[in-house]
Amino acid sequence: MQTELIIVSEYCRKTNLDPTFLNRLEEGGLIAIYIEEGEQYFPADQLPDLERYARLYYDLSINMEGIDVIHNLQLRMQELESKINYLQNKLRIYESDLFDEIE
Predict the structure, then answer these.
(1) What's this model's pTM, rounded to 2 decimal places?
(2) For the chain, which domains are there?
(3) Along the chain (103 residues), what's the average pLDDT of each consecutive run of 10 residues?
């Protein structure tokens, strides 16, 4: 499976984003940037995250440290939601067994 890559300079030109913003996101570990033949690329599947980070940074004036905190909190929330779903499904199994015994 091949991942579609987007050229950083083209993306920044079309969206009027500063390329150093993307480099700072990459330095912070929030996105991955690859260099091939002197050109910087990022995977297309990172577009939703990149757009969210740009809105936080430019529209809401949240600094890089704040963006990193928000990112980590969102990851933690996803983990907790996954655990809740797992536990709810497990509870349904036990509830089903309990009601079967009562009948």
Answers:
(1) 0.79
(2) 5-102 (1.10.1660.10)
(3) 85 94 95 93 95 96 96 97 94 73 59
